[in-house]
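Appendix C: a fully annotated inverse folding record. The material below is reproduced so that readers can follow the format used throughout the book. The structure is listed first as tokens, followed by the designed sequence.
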């Protein structure tokens, strides 16, 4: 089993960590608010599932192709500096989008490009923050911090979607987009003053000439020598292939199948957020089953049930969508929080950048293919089928994970075979 480095967190770790965390929370709020506004803007402007699928693909492609290269850089470079540069880049790119709206020069392809570039910054920022968390937070509190993160995501869903719908009625798009610039700057400020620990590098890593491809290979070998992690990544790939199209096409489902508008979409997202907050609070207090992998697999099964309910709802029963989204929200922290806590506690800190980005890349690799198929087929045959298929696959993956011995033993950590 690979042991963690000997980096110890100071007694006042909460002040440093949650100051940075609060800045990031503001940035996430701005990003989600603007994302909601942009998606609804494209929904009304084009009414095309293909356009919505394409904009989702633009946000996914950098993660698929760049993450294997980003991981070694995160393990090598200063993680605080990475987050600073990523946040600043996203703010600058979003400012360009606000200018395009201000001069009424916006085109659909502009939004594609902006989403692609923002995603590059996000794919540096997210794993850097995730890998830094295990060095700033004591190991015994990692699962609870994951629960707090899930509560944050839920709260953002509650606030961002209805607020985005309200702003669409009150403000021009240029002003809505500018909000994200301001919140990104808020996230930058704490990073200017608070240091983030760096993982200890092994002597052989210090003495060896740096090589991205060599370090990528180390990440691949590390994952492949850990059977439980390998299986989980395969499961995540299958889930994302079937589930991501249904998530991306939710605005069109609300508009075309249920005859709703931005406000209804906002409330559907908000009820999901309520579920995430309750689920995150439960995880934060409870901590999950003694074997956290059981908590994660139970969460997956619940997500599958919730998404399948949405796909089966008749056009006169929007309340079933609300219930399904509530179930999904409740189960999401149990799945993501438990699995995330397990990996942060068991993956060696000096490998986390590579492992998390490699995992993210593999897990999202099939999503663009799913979206490419879902867009045209949904335009032709209807959207609901994707929700049903995605729900059933996710439910089966949860059952499979409980039954698979290597997955059940994943909390033993990385054991080379």
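Designed amino acids, in order:
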């Amino acid at each position: 089993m690979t042991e963690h480095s000997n980096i110890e967190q100071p007694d006042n770790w909460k002040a440093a960590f949650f100051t940075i965390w609060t800045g990031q929370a503001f940035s996430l709020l701005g990003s989600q608010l603007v994302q909601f506004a942009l998606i609804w803007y494209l929904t009304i402007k084009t009414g095309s599932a293909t356009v919505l699928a394409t904009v989702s693909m633009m946000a996914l492609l950098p993660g698929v192709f760049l993450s294997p290269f980003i991981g070694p850089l995160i393990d090598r470079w200063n993680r605080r500096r990475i987050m600073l540069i990523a946040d600043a880049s996203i703010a600058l790119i979003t400012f360009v989008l606000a200018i395009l709206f201000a001069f009424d020069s916006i085109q659909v392809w502009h939004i594609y490009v902006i989403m692609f570039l923002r995603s590059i910054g996000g794919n540096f920022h997210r794993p850097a923050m995730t890998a830094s968390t295990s060095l700033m937070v004591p190991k015994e509190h990692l699962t609870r911090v994951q629960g707090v993160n899930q509560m944050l995501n839920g709260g953002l869903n509650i606030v961002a979607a209805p607020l985005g719908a309200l702003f669409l009625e009150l403000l021009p798009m240029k002003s809505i987009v500018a909000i994200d610039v301001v919140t990104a700057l808020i996230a930058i400020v704490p990073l200017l003053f608070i240091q983030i620990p760096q993982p200890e590098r092994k002597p052989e890593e210090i003495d060896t000439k740096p090589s991205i491809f060599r370090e990528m290979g180390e990440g691949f070998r590390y994952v492949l020598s850990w059977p439980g992690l390998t299986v989980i990544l395969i499961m995540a790939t299958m889930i994302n292939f079937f589930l991501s199209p249904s998530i991306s096409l939710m605005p069109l489902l609300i508009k075309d199948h249920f005859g709703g508008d931005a406000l209804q979409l906002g409330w559907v997202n908000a009820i999901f957020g309520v579920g995430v907050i309750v689920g995150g609070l439960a995880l934060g207090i409870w901590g999950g089953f003694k074997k956290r992998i059981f908590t994660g697999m139970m969460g997956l099964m619940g997500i599958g049930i919730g998404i399948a309910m949405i796909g089966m709802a008749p056009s006169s029963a929007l309340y079933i969508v609300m219930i399904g989204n509530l179930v999904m929200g409740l189960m999401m922290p149990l799945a993501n929080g438990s699995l995330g806590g397990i990996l942060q506690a068991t993956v060696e800190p000096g490998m986390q950048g590579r492992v998390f980005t490699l995992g993210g890349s593999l897990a999202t690799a099939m999503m663009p293919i799913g979206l490419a198929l879902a867009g045209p087929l949904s335009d032709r045959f209807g959207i609901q089928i994707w929700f049903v298929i995605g729900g059933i696959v996710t439910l089966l993956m949860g059952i499979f994970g409980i039954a698979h011995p290597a997955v059940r033993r994943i909390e033993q950590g990385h054991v080379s075979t």
